[in-house]
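Hi F.,

I've been meaning to write this up properly since the lab meeting, where we talked about keeping a consistent format for the predictions we share between groups. The idea is simple: the sequence comes first, exactly as it goes in, then the structure tokens exactly as they come out, then a line or two of notes. No screenshots and no reformatting. I'm using this chain as the first example so we have something concrete to point to.
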Amino acid sequence: MSRHVARLLVFALLLVALVAPIGRLAAAGPTVTPGTIPTAQIKGLVKFRNFAPLATGFDVQIGPSEAVSANNGGDANYPWGAVNAISFAYNGNQLAAGFPTLNGGAPGTVTYPGALSGPLNYLQIEIVCRHAGATVALKNVMVAGTSLGDFIPPTCGGANDAYSWYVTGLDLSAGFQLTGAMHLSGFAGLSGQENSKVLIRVGTIPAAAVGFTPADKALVCNATELRIDFRDMPAFYGYQFKVQYDDALLDAVGAFDNTWFNTTNQANVPGGWGASCAAGVCKFAVSKVNPVVPISGSGPVGKITFTAQAAGVSTVQLTNLTITDIDGFSVPATAPLPVELTTCGRASVSGKVSLQGRVTPIDGGEVKAIDTGGIFPTVTVPFDAAGNYTLTNLPVLPGGSSYKLRATHILYLGNEKTVALSPGAALTNQNTRLLGGDADNSGLNPPGTVGVDVGDLSCVAGAFDGPPVSCGPLPLSSTDINKDNVTNIQDLAITGGNYAKNPYQPW
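Output, unedited:
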């Protein structure tokens, strides 16, 4: 092959590369893809419009948002030509747009001052061409010294003829210069400012990420759900990952969340990867199946329900993360940080409650276990007619927990004490005796109430040597403290002996 022929071949290849249809470019450079990224945050834009020569309004609008009122405008009533050299630039402090001027003069410019918050890593080109018989195209587009090729809508003139492309793989944060040639035809005699236009947007693609909810320091006592979410994802078609946990401390049950990325319809889940959990690993993997289109945005993909097996502190970590687009290219995304989980142990408390003046309680009351740290809910159990009670499965932190035991009964003053419980503890013989005489049951509603007061004495004395009577509006109030179906000196002695005593008495 001659040197001359070789040069011609190289030139031809370069020409082909410049005018090739828009598509996926080399991985080392910018990538141009039809469509938009819904999660992209637009920081600035320019709009070229009003292609009908006799229309009114601004031909060029530029600013930080889609709101026209917030934008600058320029060069009203400009009669666009068949080919129009345009530009869109950012110098770190202002946006600027260039365009031809009337009668072949120097290019015009409109600007919008102000720095754009970065990183600027997203460029979007939109062409709208809804005028019947007219066409719009943007050709020979260059940005940051790189050719992006031509942007030509496949059809024009229809009500839905609006086409977008987005460009990734460029860092535009420090500034950029975009140039191109806007080609117009068929607009003579037409009107309508917005029916046909060219928009160029620049912005930020939020970093795609996988997240855990709750994020960290979760307490697992009863069933606790850990959610796995995808955040700010570009178009993807499938994913796989593992979630590792300590199966000596935790039992795990996994499940897909099908509210956003549905795995039950037009999807393929590999065997053994259907959110299955065993031996300290939960495995998730699924791919969509044609004709489903790629999915983008944010949403839940899975969850794991943990229950405590033993007390301790462990970490849960997502590993082996791979997210893919429909072409089999990896979608970059950050994995969540490991989550620290504290698992509870369990303890039990049992004993017997006796009542002053009674051989047995006859009717039951209740015992509460109140976590003094305020972490766990209060547990309440009855004690029976013999006074026996058992509090089981009390959650306890790995280092131990403190509980306040409180025993109460109608007509009696409640008792309480604090006990320290360690994981696995079985505290027995926690017995107590309640003092009587609260005939009106006012002591069941502390604090700030006197359990046995003059009202109780007066009520019991007033019914002396007769059948029991009620001592007030509260339920089950009675002058019969010892439950022998008569009001006598025994009831009066119990009441008088405990006069001015308050709940809660020492256990």
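Notes:
Residues 209-343 form a domain with the Immunoglobulin-like fold (CATH 2.60.40.680).
The chain has three domains: 20-204, 209-343, 345-506.

If this format works for you, I'll send the rest the same way.

G.
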